[in-house]
Amino acid sequence: MTTQKYIGLMSGTSLDGVDGVLAGIDPHGSLKVMAHAFVPFTASFQAQLLELNQSGPDELHRGALASNAIARHYAQVVHDLLAQTHTNAQQITAIGAHGQTVRHRPLEFDGDVLLEQAPVGYTVQLINPSLLAELTGIDVVADFRNRDLAAGGQGAPLVPAFHQGVFARAGACVGVLNIGGISNLSVLGANGAVMGWDCGPGNALMDFWCSSHIGTPFDRDGAWAAQGLVDLNLLNNLLTEDFLHRSPPKSTGRDLFNITWLRQHLNAHAHLAPQDVQATLTEFTALACAHDVKSHACDAEELIVCGGGALNSHLMRRLAVHLPDLKVTTSDHRGLPPLHVEAAAFAWLAFKTIRRETASLPSVTGARGARVLGAIYPR
Fold first, then answer.
1. Where does 99-240 show beta strands of DSSP type E?
2. Pick from 306, 286, 314: which is nearest to 175 by CA?
3. What gap in Å lies between CA 43 and CA 361, rounded to an integer?
4. CA-based diameter of the chain, in Å?
5. Is the pLDDT of residue 198 over 90?
6. C-alpha span between 149 and 112 (Å, rounded)
7. How many Cα neighbours within 13 Å face the side chain of 19?
8. What is the pLDDT of residues 104-126, one digit of tens each?
9. Residue range 179-195, pLDDT digits in tens
10. Dist CA 14 CA 145 (whole Å)
11. Which domains does the chain carry?
């Protein structure tokens, strides 16, 4: 069997930067990560991307320039991966590039009841794939979400099919919880069935609060949150959010769980110490995720956690407290480090696109059927 090399690139709602992996994938889709690289975003670029999550002046111009900048960041990660592994660009079959999501509003706005036209809505990932192909000399696969939207789906999450390929166990129900800026859960059934959806907040709110008050981009190991006390009044207020109580399929992003949303909830709690707010936000994320596991993955024997949240030991302890009957572990224990998983997923999604194989799951997104995802930009 001939193994091909793919690169997967991911910049998520945490806005910390770009993770990339170089992976070997065999014809059956089995993947092995060969190298990982990360290029951070500067604070000023993070601020630009955050501004594009909201309507504002000249946003088409600003969005186009940000797409070019994203492509340059992605190209730097590609060059780092090639240098690490002494690999030539000609040896890479394709790059899978997710882009930076700044808007995600599926199934909204443009329907017409009288004409029996269901709304499609939209999703926006900033990336200039043509520029990335030009800068790297490698075929680029991008725009993974829109084909699923066109078929009536949420366009997200995209990773459950990949989770099934790498984490499923025959005869066992397994949960895979990715905690990035937003958290999403995959349920890999013992019978091969797959479900998946966004649970709600991940690191995004905690990171914002931490950056605003102690000047660090994230709460390392959850140490600051561990110093605070959970405020039950604020926690219960946060848990009233309607999205948390909707049934799957569902997806979300900073369109909902953003700074404005948080400040509105904090208006009545201005007396709280900053570390108590951080403790409460951490508990909020843990409870929202645990609630979905209990509601939809009650047969699971194991919960595998990946993404940046898997490195927050305080958050991991809170998840374990709320899920006492489950083995809560990180993806490290299944051979794939937490910060590699999503980038590896986009290498795998590019592999599926190049082979013209479907990669979406209607059971996850609610689409009318499975579709080949992504558009190819030749080098």
1. 100-106, 121-126, 140-142, 174-179, 182-188, 194-201
2. 306
3. 36
4. 63
5. yes
6. 16
7. 24
8. 999 999 988 778 889 999 999 99
9. 999 999 999 999 999 99
10. 19
11. 4-158+340-377 (3.30.420.40), 167-334 (3.30.420.40)
